[in-house]
Design goal:
elongated
């Protein structure tokens, strides 16, 4: 059973920083693309950042230059460093990873989400 567990969310003032982590556990054979999505109240879930196995990255326009996605393959973990946070970044952040595991073909997995609130 593969699980993704996020951590690092919380309340921060505008202009502040947070670092989200997402660790995968279970009988993992390989991890492919990894990503962070977010969903604000009353809005659709949107892709924030993605990182491939070759470390190529993609960012939502509104977070470019402020957010950085990275991965530690040895620890099956993906990070999202968020800086210069704005109130509009407030959302539940979800990590997502394409994972192949024992007795399971490669498929996407989701974490449970972590709340990020940017407010003074």
């Amino acid at each position: 059973q593969v699980q993704l567990v996020e951590s690092g969310g919380g309340l921060v003032q505008p202009g502040g920083s947070l670092r989200l982590s997402c660790a995968a556990s279970g009988s993992i054979l390989a991890m492919y693309g990894m990503a962070w999505h977010r969903q604000a109240p009353g809005k659709q879930r949107e892709l924030v950042a993605r990182i491939g196995t070759d470390s190529r990255t993609f960012y939502l326009d509104s977070v470019k230059g402020r957010f950085t996605i990275s991965r530690d393959n040895a620890k099956n973990t993906v990070f999202l460093q968020m800086m210069s946070l704005k109130p509009e970044d407030t959302a539940v952040y979800y990590c997502n990873a394409q994972i192949a595991s024992v007795n399971q073909p490669s498929r996407p997995y989701w974490g449970q989400g972590t709340q990020v609130t940017v407010s003074s």
